[in-house]
Amino acid sequence: xxxxxxxxxxxxxxxxxxxxxxxxxxxxxxxxxxxxxxxxxxxxxxxxxxxx
Amino acid sequence: xxxxxxxxxxxxxxxxxxxxxxxxxxxxxxxxxxxxxxxxxxxxxxxxxxxxxxxxxxxxxxxxxxxxxxxxxxxxxxxxxxxxxxxxxxxxxxxxxxxxxxxxxxxxxxxxxxxxxxxxxxxxxxxxxxxxxxxxxxxxxxxxxxxxxxxxxxxxxxxxxxxxxxxxxxxxxxxxxxxxxxxxxxxxxxxxxxxxxxxxxxxxxxxxxxxxxxxxxxxxxxxxxxxxxxxxxxxxxxxxxxxxxxxxxxxxxxxxxxxxxxxxxxxxxxxxxxxxxxxxxxxxxxxxxxxxxxxxxxxxxxxxxxxxxxxxxxxxxxxxxxxxxxxxxxxxxxxxxxxxxxxxxxxxxxxxxxxxxxxxxxxxxxxxxxxxxxxxxxxxxxxxxxxxxxxxxxxxxxxxxxxxxxxxxxxxxxxxxxxxxxxxxxxxxxxxxxxxxxxxxxxxxxxxxxxxxxxxxxxxxxxxxxxxxxxxxxxxxxxxxxxxxxxxxxxxxxxxxxxxxxxxxxxxxxxxxxxxxxxxxxxxxxxxxxxxxxxxxxxxxxxxxxxxxxxxxxxxxxxxxxxxxxxxxxxxxxxxxxxxxxxxxxxxxxxxxxxxxxxxxxxxxxxxxxxxxxxxxxxxxxxxxxxxxxxxxxxxxxxxxxxxxxxxxxxxxxxxxxxxxxxxxxxxxxxxxxxxxxxxxxxxxxxxxxxxxxxxxxxxxxxxxxxxxxxxxxxxxxxxxxxxxxxxxxxxxxxxxxxxxxxxxxxxxxxxxxxxxxxxxxxxxxxxxxxxxxxxxxxxxxxxxxxxxxxxxxxxxxxxxxxxxxxx
Lengths: 52, 808
Hints:
The structure holds two protein chains of two kinds.
Chain A: H1 4-27, H2 36-39
Chain B: E1 10-11, E2 14-15, H1 38-49, H2 79-85, E3 87-88, E4 94-100, H3 106-112, H4 115-118, E5 122-128, E6 133-138, H5 145-154, E7 159-161, H6 165-201, H7 210-229, H8 233-244, H9 251-271, H10 278-312, E8 316-321, E9 324-329, E10 338-341, E11 349-355, E12 358-361, H11 363-366, E13 372-374, E14 379-380, E15 385-386, E16 391-398, H12 403-417, H13 424-448, H14 452-465, H15 469-488, E17 491-493, H16 496-502, E18 507-510, H17 512-516, E19 517-528, H18 532-539, H19 545-553, E20 562-568, E21 572-577, E22 580-585, H20 587-591, E23 610-616, E24 619-630, H21 634-643, E25 647-651, H22 656-665, E26 673-674, H23 679-689, E27 695-699, H24 702-710, E28 713-717, H25 722-727, E29 730-732, H26 738-773, H27 779-799
Parallel strand pairs in B: 18-25, 18-27, 25-26, 27-28, 28-29
Antiparallel strand pairs in B: 1-2, 3-4, 4-6, 4-7, 5-6, 8-9, 8-10, 10-16, 11-14, 11-16, 12-13, 12-15, 17-29, 19-24, 20-21, 21-22, 22-23, 23-24
């Protein structure tokens, strides 16, 4: 059972990394608009040429 | 529903596409259902096959016909505009944000973000769908902002400068910080909870070794420290400022409970004995932060609307300089300039007519439905619309000093002056603090003689048990849920305080034009010979409301051939139709040109109606009367409101005779109806009533805006002027008065649910007090009770029937 003395801190480091990633994402504006980006992948990329 | 009886919309001989609502080419009009193109047919088939026909009933789809204003948007390229709204980026490109009208779905994102393809020189167009704001980046060498604006306009998204850019950046930063704190608090509380599970299950005989127990307690403490020094900070700050102001609110008991429990937990961890409350404290902080965030979000709409107000006020004027006409932003207007006002244009400033005779529609300002004649020397006002030929106007005042500008400023001032309704829960929490501290002292005193260590334990347990966590969640949650449900019914509520106020019936002031009535002139009476084809022949050449009324009344009549139509402003129309001389117009105008052998002019009910005579070949042969029809659901809705306990009054800018007639028809007593009220009169009326309970103003025009903003709750009705919508606390996006009834009912139910939530959370707290006082609360009981009370409150808010879903 004494392995827990090592594993738990390790697990907490992983948590800290995840939280750090979240903080970065939130600060860089990834959650500013949660509606529009969800739609963008549905839009075809192939650039439609202008019909003149 | 089968394909055969699908809603192929037929309106005025024109077949509209079942899918997109645009005109269908004649060659395709015979098929049923009708589509304008194969793309729409495909979309319809896909939706139909998937059983998703309800898409066609969605409120977002109503009134969707694409209409371009066709404006040049020259003012977007003006120096003044660039100085105000355009930023230069480091790479030399220019950037601005525009507010787009009519943005609502995924295809809008697709269309708007195609702008760079259609307008060379625009490098990026990024749309924020939920707010309808597009960020445009373009290089000034190869294109202009106006060409991008024109493109967006042709798509049916009318662009406006977005005037909240600076406030927006600040707000976005606050939002991100709040999200960061919620995330951190959430992650910490979950992990402390995991440790707590180990601790609780290790209890009792044969449980965990003391060494492991100590280890988990230390882990919990170390994990909790970040929560206490960072995400919990808003509560300390709130408690401190409330302490300084001696006005206790929710933050005080919360701050006391979390710091008390944390300090106690730290002491017990070092002491290696007694309860720790780290799991409860971190969860509490997380839940409360979530509640706060939801609440801020719900109130956000109110702030947005104030910015909308700016975005939508008139932005363009045509100035005549050295014989040339130029479009400039209305901010650039200065007194003394001569502007050209074309047919259908809104005036950008107050001024005096110097050239031309026309009719001015002052409905926005006064609510009057019939245009007024103006000639050189007459005063005209910003926001009114020219319904006749081109006018030249010398500007006397522009911008904020115009009459409409002053009304708009009054709207803003009223909006900020309105005292925030003290939330029921906050008021309760104020009294809470004293009670909790008293009880804590009592517990400490009672147990001190038994055992000082246990006395501290029990006191802390009591403070945790009485922490008004559920209470703090109950109100914002119930309001947020109710606002969301209402929005799905087409009732847009901008803040919780509006719901709170609407739950208490008081006085409701109703505007007439557009609120109780359709807001359109329609044919009420017609007698005499059948000369409808001749009348239509003339009237379809005019844009006068009366003409529109004739055209709308007889969709099936084919107009006769006609020639030489002459229009006399303030009089009527003359011309030759089907080979005969036809005159249609006001009685005085017609009688001056034709005889009236049958005495038609003296007939009719008068009063509420606008009379029109028709003469053919020199003799009056028919008489018509127009009125603004009362909405079909008005009597029923008014009866429902009265039975809920509302006192209804009619307050209109229209002619007193018309108001009296409509009021009588709808059961308003003579003292409860008032006509000829100017915007300022309406404001005074609302102010006179304020202090006598809830005052609700329901209206649709700029003329109502100041009154709407000043009232306890302002309600804007579908089809109204933008300024009025911006000032309103509630906007009804479906026509008719039925949503008004749904609104007051929903508000009453929402308040009932809030009260229930508050009651339940207080019951939990009382139970906690009793248990703690007896020394029966240990950390496990606290850890179970606290989330249970919160979850009960959340469940009640969620399940409560507030605004029931609309059934198609």
